[in-house]
Amino acid sequence: MALSRLDNLYRQVILDHTAHPKNKGVLDVATSQIELNNPTCGDVIQLQLQIEDQVIKDVRFDGHGCSISMASASMMTDAIKGKTEKEAIETIATFLELVQGEDVKENKKALGDAQMLAGVAKFPARIKCATLAWKALERGIIEENETIVDEVKHTDD
């Protein structure tokens, strides 16, 4: 019974981020803009970052897609705002491990509500949805000061 309550809590957090996304919108000043889409399911994310002195000062997203995709974007923006680029890259790596079903104990708290997406590992087709915003973030940090429009390529692991 406790497990079903926990699953219900996870669903509620995901639905709340979908219905009331955090950091959705457009930045007045962006140092990096990334648009990625997942052609296999139609999810699209536009991510804007304001990075100063290697710190993510602000982040906003827009786009459309399934509830997992949009909730993940909301959770991600909340988790990385104020972090250094290095901390954000470490958080991305932790999240990608989490949704692949790996046991992540180090840095798990840095994920914030995104920890709730661990169950996505049970549904391989949904991993692509959950990771789209995180892959956009990674590209935005690596290719700072650029505007990127691209499709995200996923391998069928």
From TrEMBL:
Gene3D superfamilies: 3.90.1010.10. GO terms for molecular function: iron ion binding; iron-sulfur cluster binding. Residues 10-129 form the NIF system FeS cluster assembly NifU N-terminal domain. Transmembrane segments: none annotated. PANTHER family: IRON-SULFUR CLUSTER ASSEMBLY ENZYME NIFU HOMOLOG (PTHR10093). Belongs to the NifU family. This is SUF system NifU family Fe-S cluster assembly protein. It comes from Vagococcus silagei. The lineage of its organism: Bacteria, Bacillati, Bacillota, Bacilli, Lactobacillales.
